[in-house]
Design brief:
The structure holds two protein chains of two kinds.
Chain A (H helix, E strand, L loop, with lengths): L1 H12 L6 H5 L35 H23 L1 E4 L12 E4 L6 H8 L8 E6 H4 L3 H11 L1 E4 L6 H12 L3 E4 L17 H9 L3 E7 L1 H5 L11 E5 L11 H20 L2 H10 L12 H12 L12
Parallel strand pairs in A: 1-7, 2-5, 2-6, 3-4, 3-5
Antiparallel strand pairs in A: 6-7
Helix pairs in contact in A: 3-4, 7-8, 8-10, 10-11
Chain B lengths: L12 E4 L7 E4 L4 E4 L6 E5 L10 H10 L8 H4 L5 E7 L13 H16 L3 E7 L8 H8 L1 H7 L5 E3 L8 E6 L5 E5 H4 L3 E5 L10 H7 L3 H4 L5 H5 L11 H15 L4 E8 L22 H16 L2 H9 L7 E7 L1 H16 E4 L3 E7 L14 H12 L3 E2 L4 E10 L12 H10 L6 H13 L2 H9 L7 H8 L1 H6 L2 E5 L3 H6 L3 E3 L2 H12 L5 E4 L6 E4 L1
Parallel strand pairs in B: 4-19, 5-6, 5-10, 6-7, 10-11, 13-20, 14-16, 14-19, 15-20, 16-17, 17-18
Antiparallel strand pairs in B: 1-4, 2-3, 8-9, 11-12
Helix pairs in contact in B: 1-3, 4-5, 7-10, 14-18, 16-18
The chains are: A alpha/beta, B alpha/beta.
Amino acid sequence: MAALSDLLSKAADVKLPRLKKPLAKLPFPLRAPSTPLTVEPLPPVRKTGADFDTEWARSGPARAAREILTTTMMEPIVQFLASPSRQGLDRLEGHEGPMIFAANHHSHIDTPVMITSIPEPWRSKLVVGAAADYFFNSRIKGSLAALTIAAFPIERTKVGRKSADLAAELLEDGWSLLIFPEGGRSPDGWGQAFRGGAAYLAHRCDVPVVPVHIEGTARILRKGRALPKPSSTKITFGAPLTIHEGERSAAFAERIEHEVAVLADEVSTDWWSARKRAHAGTTPSLSGPQAGVWRRVWALDDRGSRGSRKSWPNTN
Amino acid sequence: MAKEPKRAPRPGLVLDVDRSTPPILFHHGEGFRLEKLPAGRSRVIYAAEPLPGIPDPDGAIREALANPIGESEPLHALLTPGMKLTIAFDDISLPLPQMTKPDVRQRIIEAVLDLAAEAGVDDVHLIAALALHRRMTEAELRHAVGDRVYDAFAPQGCLYNHDAEDPDGMVIIGQTPHDEDVQMNKRAAESDLIVYVNINLVSMDGGWKSTATGLSGYQALKHHHNPATMKASKSFMIKEDSELHHSNWRQGKVLKESGIKVFQIETTINNNTFGDNGPMSVLQKREWEWTGRDRASFMAMNTGLKAMSARAKRTAFQSWKAPYELTSVQAGEVEAVHEVTTANTLKQHLVPVEGQTDILTMGLPYICPYNVNSIMNPILVMCLGLGYFFNMYRNKPLVREGGVLIMSHPTPWEFHPVHHPSYIDFFEQVLTETHDPVEMSEKYEKQYAEDEWYRHLYRTSYAYHGVHPFYMWYWGSHALEHLGQVIIVGGDTRAVQRLGFRPASTLQDALEMASDTVGPQASITHYHNPPILMADVT
């Protein structure tokens, strides 16, 4: 053991060759240029986070590449992992133009499930609002997200107009938007309060919002899990909602959340029961009971995974 | 989609080269060189960044036509049923490179035709005002005026190239007090109104140069396209200092007094030659601001170019369309309009520079006004360097009298046989005998200008007029007289020597050779163009 420790400490002392030095000997333009002494260098341009440029990912070639990726890779993977059952697509018939698809969010697989579930003509011109601080914190990650799922950065850690302006411009350009109004994946399987982004954009751009409920993806890859586990899922599309005359964005956001809750109720019971509860104002909330952690987990089993068996934690 | 708001464009810059300055980009025909300039005695002049374009160009054009400058009525008031209307427009030599569609000319011509249609004008002709330049092909005309206009007028023979050698198509309007003939396209001269559609790429363009030159012929042009006028134009980029313009303005006055009515529409564009993004954008960035992506695209471009044939390289470069944006449009009376246009052009181009230099270096790009979709032959290399780039100054030349000009260009011994037939003979016959503009003008000009074969090729093929190579040489008269030595780096040795210049393999060799004339520690200024800039030398 002492010998091993000695070896490790010696290894730590060995200086690895630094990459910068040999590169500095290369001639320009193989190496980065130096700045003349009399010139003030340009301020560094932030290219990650909300400043990540995703416009290229909406160009013709990138869309064609994404279409190929979606059909050859994403669809088979989603089918294998999630076997989605899609309901309520008939509610979109007769609608045209860009729409905002607002869904609850449990898992990273929600995005591919939604992309493969949203029908044409919206699917081929769809962008996904993705957390700027998570998906766009590096060039490689951001580029992959932009190319594969047409993601664009949404700032969620600070207030800024940039994300909203970009989303509005995209909607005005005829792109539909997939957004998870909860702002992140569920930490415990229950939903979180919907933020106002989707409602605000719908109000600003005068486009309808399609409430969507995703059930079952938490079982595949919930937050905190590294490897997916196949399970069945249900994707339920609601009727497109438009903002009422004089309705404020906050109220509209609540209505969107309520409609997703009604869809959740529809999935866990049946359409008629869900409608009755909706009219009676007794639709179960997406966010679950206001209780201690174990009771919330307990209640989740009652609702989210009908047919699954409660199991005691393995204490071995 | 609306772009992100950009920071304000930076003005031009004069950089003093120090040891930290990276190698500087030199254009080199259809290629590039990166040259390390001596620290402590060199400077580099960079163009201002592109000014923002007008957000609504079509709206601005309509506005300009309705609110003319100077003594002119709005265009709609000048249009009446039964009138004869001629719309003349700048030819293939503008802008450089050709701009992305829609061309400014198309926007304006469509706006003018809209008003003409509203007024019930039936007799409309459109003429490419090319003077003694080559005729434009159908594709080039379509690019300039757009398919809608082309398809509406060309099949009826109402859209065509100006023919300065048509014996029945030209008319003498009169003479200036300086005995200069004023000649014009007959259709235009007989029209009730000429609407001239201009693109001002540099401050030399526009004004009376549009109609008095563009729609004219050899009989009138010889009065200002000659060595004496060119030598006295210091520089011809500034109207007040240009004898060429004085002569043109005198001819314009004759046109005006003869009753010919011109409604001038002038435009300025920014210098966004290579775009903000894309493979060529690196060419308009300052070298120390090249990002990893810029360096990669530059190296990829250079590697690709090395593997390509000369013809393939030319095709690739000539296919580039510059994303120029309209920065101003003004219409009305010629002289009043041109005042505003010139001010707007200079706003983009002028870079203040203190003092002259002993050695001026410049990298010549692949294009000049006379080789669009063609070959930059040695005579055009001389014209671009000594005629155009040398003259891009106000007040005094960038290089001192007796100084050295070092240009970088491959200068191939190659000519486009269709576009430049008389150039070939000029190169073989005239330049082997003399480089003196006065001597060649006296001995050979008339012979070339009146040669029936060249005349035939100019009229029926796509050839520049027989006299054109002389004019190219005359453009450089002022520089030839001013400079102590001209060196071309990386050029075809025989071709360079035929031009009367000294060939050098590298810039270091050229600087060494220059020291014979200007001494060992001579000051050096590099003129970093394109994008276009003009030195305001004090």
